[in-house]
Amino acid sequence: MAAKMNPDLKKEREGASFDPEKITNLLYGGPDRVTSKRELESLALNDPDFQHEDLNFMSREQQYETQLKKSILVVQKQKELGIVDQMDLHSYSYNGVFQSMSGPFGLHTSMFLPTLRGQGTDEQKAKWLKMAEEYAIIGTYAQTEMGHGTFLRGLETTSTYDPQTQEFILNTPTLTGTKWWPGCLGKTSNYCVLMAQLYIHGKSYGPHPFMVQIRSLQDHKPLPGVTVGDIGPKFGYQGNDNGFLRFDNVRIPRDNMLMKYSRVEPDGTYVKPPSSKLAYGTMVRVRSMIVGEASESLSKAVTIAIRYSCVRRQSEMKPGHPEPQVLDYVTQQYKLFPFLAAAYAFVFASRTMIFVYFQSMAKISSGDITVLPELHALSSGLKSLSSWVMNAGIEECRMACGGHGYSHASGIPSIYMEHTPAATYEGENTVLMLQTARYLMKSYNQSMQGEKLADSVAYLSGVQPVPAAGRTRNVLDLGVLIEAYQHRAARLVHEAALQLRNERQAGKDQPDAWNAASVDLVKAAKAHSQYFVVKNFAGRLTDPALDSAAQAVLTRLCQLYALHGVVDNSGDFLEDDYLTGTDIRQARRHINALMAKLRPDAVALVDAFDFPDGILNSVLGRYDGNVYEHLLEWAKASPLNKTDVHESYHKYLKPFLEANRAKL
Ligand SMILES: CC/C=C\C/C=C\C/C=C\C/C=C\C/C=C\C/C=C\CC/C=C/C(=O)SCCNC(=O)CCNC(=O)[C@H](O)C(C)(C)COP(=O)(O)OP(=O)(O)OC[C@H]1O[C@@H](n2cnc3c(N)ncnc32)[C@H](O)[C@@H]1OP(=O)(O)O
Ligand SMILES: Cc1cc2nc3c(=O)[nH]c(=O)nc-3n(C[C@H](O)[C@H](O)[C@H](O)COP(=O)(O)OP(=O)(O)OC[C@H]3O[C@@H](n4cnc5c(N)ncnc54)[C@H](O)[C@@H]3O)c2cc1C
């Protein structure tokens, strides 16, 4: 018999002003997509082969083993089921089977295969791709070293060409040159794409990708000259064997260098790529995907916190009245609704990012590499902004769930632990924001020369005049808000450029001037990315998939997202009098009014994300809201409760207590 729905959640759903299915359809690309998503998720969630004890109750070794077993099963089952589409794989495997927790094949699919596809020649793909796609070999992406992650040109692992034997000799010349962090390297992978400094005839040509076998295909032992292992427990990522790797005079054939873009001829002649940054292509790809990871993780946390806030009743708002649902406290709404709005903003941004990525890659494949700088700038900015907001949002959601938020039963700590490194991996966020800033500075200078700019920065060409101080406007109007964000971004870019120039004029060389201006440069890059997100959100409101009720509620969310950003960064908007103090006061009032209007729709808005319970993996965020009975059930399953009296009682506590009693 189906469990009864918690009456508060039932009422919330009945009181919504719109049909969540309309928004679900928009989020996932139409009813057919939603149907297949649900089918695939349900197939994975109900498959007895994928059932196991809660990962939170397992040791790290057990977690690794469990995830490995599932990874193998998933490969087999995907094949049987004929799942090949990326979105379908995402539903079945990433969410359905793994609930977005990392596993030992993660890097094989997210970086090893894409690097082979993107950096290999046709002959190299013919040699390795099938083996990799069929999991005859398993690989990772080994780039970061103990001493260098950010500064790729500083990598120390060397790949020295020997024209006599037509081989590369791999070496780790220092301790800090030890590869450190690559996912799935420690115990799982038998191959890797190795990023190493290419040396030919004593000359360095910078980091290049090499296909390297590191373990025997017979007994999985490290090959001669290879030292490899697991780097130990981490903040999260327990199911993943992030590893270390060292080379001592390991020889690989010449054609193990991935040579789609740059080549080494048998005699040692180096053939340059059209752009040296093409070798960094896989990172750009994963950064583009991380915007999706961030939006999805934030959406999950917000779903849990909002549902629970409707089930949770606490305190007495009015004497003698029933305790209110905690979501009725406006302070609680102020914690959660801006992040609900942000989750939507980034889901839409991620869809655009993925579209731009594939569109740009099509151009790059046909030889047009002019799109690369814009793609790099956009993906760097959005990856950083979205993962920063995700981190802040998940933590806010955890605290908004009070004490229960701290328990693994809430599901929120796992989401945080697993996804917080998105701010670090694939390029540390500040470093990447500075890359976006670099592009903005270049574009700004080009606009000063009257050159035409790429679409995403075209607005820099016409930094608007500052409007007369004291002029107030309707800050609820999305057109006004988009212009305000555009103006702020253009002004901050302009000011960062001026600061750079001033530092130069004061006698600093370019790197020192850049460093001195870097706080403002990051601020400008963030403002540029925020402008993109606001404009992109507003652009989705007219999607024909929405009926008028769904459009109305999403418009409110978009207004809230934009207004909250204005209030949070009010100094930026006030500094040059673009907005007035009255505008900001109005913005605060509008936020309160919007939150009141959104309150009855909050549960329907998180339902529209369409995360089944198995994927949320949260006692607090259960669809039926039956939180308390399941909290007790969950705690009872904890390994410490397997016996009434733990064995440590006999070992330690009993003698201690008895000795103390004997002394009395
Ligand atoms: C289809 C799916 C369906 C639904 C989606 C929905 C949801 C999705 C949910 C989940 C998503 C699933 C998967 C993704 C999630 C997780 C990923 C999985 C695991 C992650 C594991 C982590 C792996 C790693 O971390 S690998 C290591 C990553 N390392 C880095 O990123 C290093 C960072 N450093 C650098 O990139 C560079 O060194 C640098 C800092 C950028 C500087 O480079 P360098 O010093 O060489 O260059 P200069 O500074 O001198 O600049 C020269 C010049 O080049 C430009 N430049 C630099 N990089 C690039 C580039 N990549 N492309 C283009 N141009 C570049 C730079 O700006 C300069 O330009 P100018 O001279 O013109 O100024
Ligand atoms: C869970 C996880 C999985 C990972 N998986 C992989 C993988 O599969 N393969 C792989 O190769 N790597 C992987 N990494 C490594 C990851 O890519 C790097 O840690 C990341 O790129 C950051 O580099 P770093 O550690 O050198 O940080 P650092 O660069 O040392 O950062 C430390 C601080 O210095 C600051 N800083 C550094 N340079 C600058 C600068 N130029 N300007 C201003 N500030 C600066 C940063 O902002 C930061 O605050 C993984 C890391 C994690 C945590």
CATH architecture label of the largest domain: Up-down Bundle
Assign the CATH class of the largest domain: Mainly Alpha
Give Rg in angstroms.
Answer: 27 Å
Main β-sheet, in a few words? 6 strands, mixed
* Tally of domains: 3
pLDDT < 50 stretches: none
Bound ligands, each once: ligand LLQ7RFE7, flavin-adenine dinucleotide
How many alpha or pi helices? 23
Distance between the termini: 57 Å
Under CATH, the homologous superfamily of the largest domain reads: Butyryl-CoA Dehydrogenase, subunit A, domain 3
Write the layout of secondary structure elements.
Elements: H1 7-14, H2 20-28, H3 31-45, H4 60-81, H5 86-97, H6 106-119, H7 122-133, E1 139-142, E2 158-162, E3 167-171, E4 179-180, E5 191-200, E6 203-213, E7 226-230, E8 243-247, E9 250-253, E10 263-264, E11 270-271, H8 281-311, H9 330-365, H10 372-400, H11 402-406, H12 412-419, H13 429-448, H14 478-505, H15 510-516, H16 518-540, H17 548-568, H18 570-574, H19 581-598, H20 602-607, H21 613-616, H22 627-636, H23 647-663
Parallel strand pairs: 1-5, 2-5
Antiparallel strand pairs: 2-3, 3-9, 4-8, 5-6, 7-8, 10-11
Helix pairs in contact: 2-3, 3-5, 6-7, 6-8, 8-9, 8-10, 8-12, 9-10, 9-16, 9-17, 9-19, 10-12, 10-13, 10-16, 13-14, 13-16, 14-15, 14-16, 14-17, 16-17, 17-19
The chain binds ligand LLQ7RFE7 and flavin-adenine dinucleotide.
Structure description:
The chain is α+β, with helices and mostly antiparallel strands and about 675 residues long. The protein folds into 3 domains: about 25-100, Butyryl-Coa Dehydrogenase, subunit A, domain 1 (Orthogonal Bundle); about 135-275, Butyryl-CoA Dehydrogenase, subunit A, domain 2 (Beta Barrel); about 280-450 and about 470-605, Butyryl-CoA Dehydrogenase, subunit A, domain 3, CATH 1.20.140.10. The protein is built from 23 helices and 11 strands. The protein has helices at about 5-15, 20-30, 30-45, 60-80, 85-95, 105-120, 120-135, 280-310, 330-365, 370-400, 400-405, 410-420, 430-450, 480-505, 510-515, 520-540, 550-570, 570-575, 580-600, 600-605, 615, 625-635, 645-664; strands at about 140, 160, 165-170, 180, 190-200, 205-215, 225-230, 245, 250-255, 265, 270. The strands form 3 sheets. Strands 1, 2, 3, 5, 6 and 9 form a 6-stranded mixed sheet that branches. The protein has a 3-stranded antiparallel sheet with strand order 4-8-7, with no helix packed on it. Helix 9 crosses helix 17 (about 550-570) and helix 13 (about 430-450) packs across helix 14. The chain starts with 6 loop residues before the first helix and ends with a helix. The mean pLDDT is about 95. The structure holds ligand LLQ7RFE7 and flavin-adenine dinucleotide. Flavin-adenine dinucleotide (FAD) binds next to strand 1 and helix 13. The site of flavin-adenine dinucleotide has 22 residues, from strand 1 and helix 13. This is Acyl-coenzyme A oxidase. Its cofactor is FAD. It catalyses: octanoyl-CoA + O2 = (2E)-octenoyl-CoA + H2O2; hexanoyl-CoA + O2 = (2E)-hexenoyl-CoA + H2O2; octadecanoyl-CoA + O2 = (2E)-octadecenoyl-CoA + H2O2; decanoyl-CoA + O2 = (2E)-decenoyl-CoA + H2O2. It is found in: Peroxisome.
